What we know:
Helices cover 32% and strands 26% of the residues. The protein has nine helices and twelve strands.
Amino acid sequence: MTDPILALWGVSAGYGPRAVIRDVDLEIGRGEWIGILGPNGAGKSTLLRLMTGLLEPTGGVVEVDGRPIRSLDRAAIARRIAVVPQPSSLPFAATVEAVVSLGRLPHEDRFRGLRPADRAAVAAAIDRVGLGRLVGRDVRELSLGERQLVLLAVAIAQAAPIVMLDEPTVHLDVRHQFDVMDLLADLHDRDGRTIVTVIHDLHLAATRIPRVAVVAGGRLVADGRPSETLDGELIRTVFGVDPSLLPDGPWSERRVGGAVGHG
């Protein structure tokens, strides 16, 4: 990959004396959609913090657009990376449109506030996620699925080329899981956004995300297309799960002519 939009070169990191990430190399190309998978405690969220500049590596370098992320201030990072938190992190009183307008802060004139173009971007983002009917509602009154769509609208309004999400489908019902994944696919396919998604759901990752990177013990242990990466051996060794207990996927095994084959 000659021109990654986001790259980690020999990155190690941790908290105090505890090492969490060890010597990780990862390149993400412009317009790629990559899922970060791994068991609890593997270092997925730490990787996300490194890639957003919230955590300083103890070794190696993190680059965005070819520049060390440590050389950028928070506003410059926000113009490049939109971070979508989990929907439970909305405890304050605010209308849907007020929350979505936070996405325009990196572009806002601090002395004049939102410009007509900013307000148009907010309205377009709300319409794109299908929540126009909820304008004026307090976000605390919304379901978790609706809140997650609001947070996606923030990222859309932010207009950053990279969108990072930490467990965007966790605790959501099936319909909202598909709504979220459909929106991410649309941002990837139609807008060419680079999407980085930390996700636990192996089936969603295998069926919806073109590339997956698997983290275990703070190291990158697999990286590639789900059909080639998420095989039965990896599911057993990394996740400690019998793949036969999962819905059909790249990890599935079936008997072909008396021998075990992979389907």
